[in-house]
Amino acid sequence: MFTDEWNNSSEYVEVQTSGSTGTPKVMRVKKSRMEASARMTIDFLRLKPTDKALLCLPDKYIAGKMMIVRSIVGKLNLVSVEPSGNPLLEVEEHIHFAAFTPMQVYNMLQNEQTRLRFEAIDKIIIGGGAISPSMAQELRGMKNEIWSTYGMTETLSHIAMRRLSGESASEWYEPLRGVKVCANEEGCLVIEALHVAEEVLTTNDIAEIREDGKFKILGRKDNVVCSGGIKLQIEQMEVRIASHYDREFALSWLPDEKLGQALALVYTTKGDGEKIKTVCEEVLDRVERPKSYIYLSEIPHTETNKIARNRLNMAIRAL
Fold first, then answer.
1. Exposure winner among 136, 254, 280, 281, fewest CB in 10 A?
2. Are 45 and 97 in contact (CB under 8 A)?
3. Using one digit for the tens of pLDDT, what is the confidence trace for 192-216?
4. CB of 266 within 8 A of CB of 245?
């Protein structure tokens, strides 16, 4: 168990990355940096000792580990349930603070009982995957504090948050205390948070940064498809498609002699090829439209439910 590792005599613990863009790896991180990360979140959300915090994420990964560390540092009362698609089915008591994945949130909102329990939680953070436009719209009308987080294993969970609920809802992430961001020449986000990360981190996330330091993510550099000399950011296009198509799909690419990379759309509902093609014709510019539409029974995901882009690319090229 993680608590055994946390309480041993070592200054370090091991954490595993998700593998969303490559092979998962194990990192050794200082416990003192995890404590610093926990304090950032506690201060930002104004959590108080004895607040009840829900642990419903695997402690194999940083998100679950950090919920435990926050409870220790902040003297929170930790309520633990087995990680599942809808953890609130098992929770009847009032929760002050919880962390969920987008998939868990989606499932909870489909069930009347767990939806009410979700709305009763004082403060919620959501991370580990993209939040769809329809989910963002639904959360915007809720009265509790709901935040989207930005971060990675290397930053020991999140280093910035953006509000999803209420009048303060925003597309812009606000860096937590002690965090500075800028963009490099390629437009990728650079993070300086030396109290939680050993070095300045250059990400693969293309970002727009305002003068006040807030930022929004436009997509990943390695998810840019260069088709006929035109650079296409597939995540931004996926968001536009998802606003008109509510079933699972993903964009990828295939090698093409003329274009170099030809955009391909993968869908998982049989018979939906023409339907999603029509959507693409409506919401995408002519140069953005996929050159092929490919059915797969399932889209590969990592253990933390992110699209495994490399495995998806391999799958469609093997057809």
1. 281
2. yes
3. 999 999 899 999 999 999 999 999 9
4. no
